[in-house]
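Students often ask why we bother encoding 3D structure as a string. The short answer is that it lets us treat folding as translation between two languages. Here is a chain of 177 residues written in the first language.
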Amino acid sequence: MIDAILLGLIRRGNENALEQLIDKYYAYVCTIVRNAAGDRLTHEDVEETASDIFLALWECAEKVQKIKPWLGATARNKARNKTREIRDDVPLDDEFIAEDSDSMDDAIIADSEKNTVKSAILAMDTPDREIFLRHYYGNETTAMIGEETGMTESAVQQRLVRGRKKLRHILEQEGLG
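And here it is in the second language, the structure alphabet:
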């Protein structure tokens, strides 16, 4: 009940309400970020990610239905994004460069396939893309996605089925089926 009141105040631009939610949920958000990222994020990265989550809450409060599930899902997604960012920023040392040209070729092919899949997912319509990313990359259940998007669970499942068919079709066209 208190969360709903605070959310309503945030929607009206009340910064004190946001501060109260931060006080209430900061430890919860940081725990989820640490659990999702493992030991790949520093303490500062965890704090920065938590701050980004509360900023996102402030910016899209109109779309949030229930605060705690939204914070949990957003924390997992942002933690994974942050770990990808960090992983992408790591410079390659000589010891990481494959000596075997076959394994290097395999790595290049795998990267090409990943890029094709990524492009196919990003080409989906907005609701389908969001559902697909939340389910397969954010590890959210269809029930959770349905609750947060206002759809029935069966509608979410149907969109996933259609998304997989579209993805399969694109990959087959690219010779990756």
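Translate back mentally: Residues 1-91 form a domain with the Rna Polymerase Sigma Factor; Chain: A fold (CATH 1.10.1740.10). Keep this in mind for the problem set.
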